[in-house]
């Protein structure tokens, strides 16, 4: 399989639009403008990019960024082999060569000296200097850079530099409002809408605890997890505790509050 085919999104991912983001992304892509999707964890940022890659029929290369990631992890490195050395392109280089959308997930996690390697790709130059090889790679006309960014994690140590931020167009994402989230959870898992609505209600109530002892609310991802467990025959109460309450906090008081909300919501349902 060619690189291009390997990275294509072959099946349409389910994506529930929240606004005009699909048309806006298409406009940004048409102009090959770099895109940043901002928002809390598990609210649909990655799913959106995956959907757009499918819709635009472009390969997608996703990189989960972390603090140990170096510029070489993105650009590439020489490998030692029995007969000498061989160059191996990193994911950013592959994307620039084949004309993929390169999605750097949680870019803030990467160190700033790593982040700067994307700069020459994000302006009119559209080049990637591969210093170790002495190559200046011109990006394929289809190449586009997309990054995700969770402003909730922002701290003095971990924030994107203005010089990086100001190279991107940006979308603000948030957890969907109840009706949309119910549709997402029901469509994603096949759970009936009435039960999905109850899970969403608990999720939304927990989001109000943010700042009152909770750093982040319950994500749509976790609501989907709870629904998946219920579809597998787990009782709604157990599913909610396991997927929605336990992962997000170790604080006994908050757990109790969440457990009460779960009990109250599924009171009439045999647990
Ligand atoms: P993140 O914002 O952390 O990138 P994801 O895109 O991975 O989050 O979303 C987490 C999960 O939530 C997805 O796997 C999907 O099940 C569900 N989800 C959230 N928003 C949507 C949406 N708008 N359409 C479809 N699924 C969604």
List keywords for this structure.
binds adenosine-5'-diphosphate, two-stranded antiparallel sheet, 42% helix, alpha/beta, single chain, 271 residues, 9 strands, five-stranded parallel β-sheet, 13 helices
Can you tell me about this structure?
Strand 3 and strand 4 form a beta hairpin. The chain is of the alpha/beta class and 271 residues long. It contains 13 helices and nine strands. The chain has a five-stranded parallel β-sheet with strand order 2-5-8-1-9, with helices on both faces.
- Report the portion of residues in β strands: 15-25%
Instruction: Write down the Rg.
Output: 21 Å
Mean pLDDT: 92
- Give the SSE order as H and E letters: HHEHEHEEHEHHEEEHEHHHHH
- Major beta sheet, strand line-up: 2-5-8-1-9
Bound molecules: adenosine-5'-diphosphate
Count all strands and give the number.
9
**Amino-to-carboxy terminus distance:** 49 Å
- Shape type: elongated
Q: Helices and strands: which structural class?
A: alpha/beta
| Largest sheet descriptor | 5 strands, parallel
The tally of helices reads 13
Detail the poorly predicted runs: none
Proportion of helical residues? 40-55%
